[in-house]
Design brief:
16 helices; 2 domains; two-stranded parallel ribbon; Glycosyltransferase; mainly alpha; about 5% strand; about 400 residues; single chain; two-stranded antiparallel sheet
Length: about 400
């Protein structure tokens, strides 16, 4: 039974599209509960995931056990929602996502502490009372239940994942409006409207297309829900492309522009917007990667930050996401077009395993954490550059537990 299910899944995932089918417009049955595949992989390495499930290593086995334990603990818990925040946004609508800018603090020089002032790299704890924690909880719950379902094929996890999706995107009482007009607000600035930086929060939605694709195989999948989620992203994408925040973020020349570009590309592909997908997938290499990385691998915009090593890793992680997105869509790999991805990694490589004092730029905190993040960059990049020493360096310096979920999606 299990072997036949896996065989059927492989056939469905890799069956060629007919001559009249659009590779960007997935079809699904209108029958309620029809667990039909959407035939798309977005950021996660689905081919690798199928191999992991069919031939699990000890590491994968440990990671699956950990994700199942986490999923079991979450079963029965209320799904995260934007309506759970303690403070309403300026709109007065609890369905509007509301977050505060991470590095903006009360002004010590004014009686009302306004306007807030920037302290780069120092996180204001006030962000915890709004929607950023709710969005983090949404992302983790959806990822946990989706992976538990994929690796065990137990529908109870799919049911829980669909509850998370319906709560956040569909249910009238709990849904989020499809915009981030009040994201990363800087109090006392811009009439307390959101900032362009707030679109970074939306990167948490990048797992949704892969989750929906995987969960569409379950008996709890409903065509009307898949349609509703795609409609939500159609509206959200339109807001990203036309709002003042989105237009400004598109013009950003650092990790903000990178993350915006990737989100637009993925949401366009997910919603079948061929024109936007083609524009953003084809322009990423020249508009983002090659403009942001110098010939020696430095990323000047990230190196000006107070957490320069961390933000350099953060942007490379996005570069790797886009490389996976292009490969999953059978588009031209960036690797064959430019050396910039590899040089950005190699610039950081000499500082792996070294104390923060060896780093010639600022890194005011989280040195050990960012070293581990760089190890994961090496782990992912080793598949792209098999002739490199990345895999050996990962094994030498990696301190993450064998149960880390990265082992299940890459």
């Amino acid at each position: 039974m299990r072997h036949s299910l896996l065989t059927m899944l492989v056939v469905l995932l890799f069956a060629p599209l007919s001559a009249n089918s659009s590779p960007l417009t997935p079809s699904f049955s209108t029958r309620e509960g029809a667990g039909e595949r959407l035939h798309n992989s977005y950021v996660w390495n689905r081919e690798r995931m199928l191999l992991h499930r069919d031939h699990p290593s000890d590491t994968v086995t440990a990671a699956v056990a950990a994700i199942v334990r986490d999923a079991d603990k979450r079963l029965g818990s209320p799904a995260p929602s934007v309506v759970n925040k303690r403070t309403l946004p300026p709109s007065g609508d609890k369905h509007d996502y509301y977050s505060m800018a991470r590095y903006w603090w009360p002004n010590p020089d004014t009686p009302d502490h306004l306007p807030y002032v920037r302290r780069d790299g120092q996180v204001n704890p006030e962000i915890e009372g709004l929607d950023r924690p709710n969005l983090d909880a949404f992302e983790k719950a959806l990822r946990t239940f989706t992976l538990a379902y994929f690796y065990t094929e137990d529908d109870k996890y799919a049911a829980a994942a669909w509850d998370v999706l319906r709560t956040w995107f569909i249910n009238k009482k709990t849904h989020m409006n499809p915009n981030m007009a009040y994201s990363q607000v800087r109090l006392g600035h811009n009439n307390n409207q959101g900032s362009n930086s707030g679109l970074l929060d939306g990167y948490s939605f990048l797992i949704v297309p892969d989750a929906v694709d995987i969960l569409s195989a379950s008996r709890y999948a409903k065509a009307k829900d898949i349609h509703a989620i795609r409609q939500w992203f159609t509206q959200y994408l339109q807001w990203m492309l036309t709002s003042p925040q989105g237009i400004k973020e598109d013009a950003a020349e650092n990790n903000h522009g990178t993350a915006y570009h990737i989100q637009v590309a993925v949401y366009a592909r997910f919603t079948g917007n061929d024109s936007v997908w083609n524009t953003y997938s084809n322009s990423f290499c020249t508009q983002r990667l090659e403009k942001q990385v110098l010939h020696d691998g430095r990323q000047p915009h990230e190196l000006t930050r107070t957490r320069a090593f961390g933000y350099s890793c953060y942007n490379i992680k996005h570069f790797l996401d886009m490389e996976d997105i292009l490969r999953n869509a059978h588009s031209s790999s960036m690797v064959i077009r430019t050396p910039s991805l590899r040089t950005s990694i190699d610039f950081l490589k000499p500082y792996l395993g070294k104390p923060v004092t060896a780093w010639p730029y600022e890194q005011i905190s989280d040195w050990s954490k960012e070293q581990q993040n760089f190890c994961w960059i090496l782990y992912r990049a080793a598949d792209i550059y098999p002739e490199s020493d990345y895999k050996q360096l990962f094994r030498l310096y990696n301190k993450a537990k064998q149960s880390h979920y990265y082992y299940l999606i890459y």
